[in-house]
Design goal:
Distance between the termini: 38 Å
Bound molecules: zinc ion
CATH superfamily of the largest domain: ATPase, nucleotide binding domain
Number of domains: 2
Strand order of the largest sheet: 3-2-1-4-7
Number of strands: 12
Number of helices: 12
Shape: globular
Strand content: 15-25%
CATH class of the largest domain: Alpha Beta
Structural class: alpha/beta
Helix content: 25-40%
Length: about 325
């Protein structure tokens, strides 16, 4: 890595010591990391997430921390699921293989690296990045939705990121919007995550290809459905594939329903859509806007923004969480 910073030289020269913070975002597909110097990203990278359990992921992240964190003040890590920020233990983590329930992730990483490691939910970290540095710096109230392999969420009210009991507030992805719909990693059925997330898109697209309904998806996948990605599905939509368009339309309707339900419940009309897939999701903003119009009598006119940060938003939020040095930020507020 090129840090471009040398604390010792700067201290010797009489300049203020530079404080850097490492944020690591463990996603269902990739582990992304970033080093934040105050509000500035000075380095970042990514690698594929190990798919054989929590201990392999810990080994990956510990190696990354030991390699990158020589002169950082602290480390924050996110996972795509429930996190008790006070204890650093994980709960339900639907899109990561392994035994994550009640796993002491913070303590294990601290033991392996010697760094204090703040543990955050990935969508809440994404919201923190957008609230402090990105698309929501001027918003006091907003619902945040992070669309990647799964679908995460977060709620900001009165300028504060809500955590609730054990950090559980904001699971927009696990509102059920299709009764008796597909089984979700959380154990429920028809969740926004299970219909509108990236993994759900791929599952639905494979079924459409097998039914002969989406020939351009098959072409975009290079004939290998095992390697099909949401981006290839979006490309097939752009190619004019009706089967792909139907798959995306069904998924985006589920996302829009979840967003509208959350906004109606909370009385919030500002929405920030982010995560790795939001910017490329065909027609998503329009679908969400039309759905929010149906709850306008409850919440008034809505404001929808795409996130400022794309791939590394949760990693930036993790670094901000470490910078706060108060993982209890996500506790009950
Ligand atoms: Zn669910």
């Amino acid at each position: 890595m090129s840090r471009g910073l040398d604390n010792q030289d700067r201290t010797l020269a009489g300049a203020p010591e530079v404080a850097c913070w490492l944020g690591v975002d463990v996603g269902g597909t990739n582990i992304k990391w970033t080093i934040l110097n105050g509000r500035e990203v000075v380095a970042s990278g990514s690698m594929p997430t190990a798919r054989d359990g929590e201990h392999s992921v810990v080994d990956q992240v510990a190696a990354l921390i030991n390699e990158q964190a020589g002169d950082v003040r602290g480390v924050g890590i996110t996972v795509p699921g429930h996190v008790d920020a006070a204890t650093g233990r994980t709960g339900i983590v639907p899109n990561l293989p392994g035994q994550w329930r009640d796993f002491p992730l913070g303590a294990v990483l601290t033991r392996a690296t010697g760094h204090h490691v703040a543990v955050l939910n990935d969508a809440r970290a994404f919201a923190l990045a957008e609230l402090r540095l990105g698309a929501a710096t001027d918003l006091a109230d907003a619902v945040f939705v992070a669309i990647g392999t799964g679908v995460g969420g977060a709620v900001v009210l009165g300028g504060r990121l809500l955590g609730g009991v054990a950090g559980r507030v904001g699971e927009v992805g696990h509102v059920s919007v299709v009764p008796d719909g597909p089984l979700c990693g959380c154990g429920g059925r028809g969740c926004v995550d299970a219909v509108g997330g990236g993994a759900a898109l791929v599952t639905a697209a494979r079924a459409a290809v097998r039914a002969g309904a989406a020939p351009l998806i098959e072409r975009r996948s290079g004939g290998d459905l095992a390697r099909l990605t949401p981006v290839a599905i979006f490309a097939a939509v752009a190619d004019g594939d009706r089967g792909a368009a139907a798959v995306v339309s069904h998924a985006s309707a589920a996302l829009a329903a979840g967003v509208a339900n959350a906004c109606a419940l909370l009385g919030i009309s500002n929405v920030v859509l982010g995560g790795g897939l939001a910017h490329g999701y065909p027609g998503l903003v329009d679908v969400v806007r039309r759905r929010l119009e149906t709850v306008a009598p409850l919440i008034g006119p809505s404001l929808i923004r795409l996130a400022h940060f794309t791939d590394h938003s949760a990693a930036i939020g993790a670094a901000l969480g470490a910078q706060d040095d108060q993982p209890t930020l996500l506790e009950y507020t």
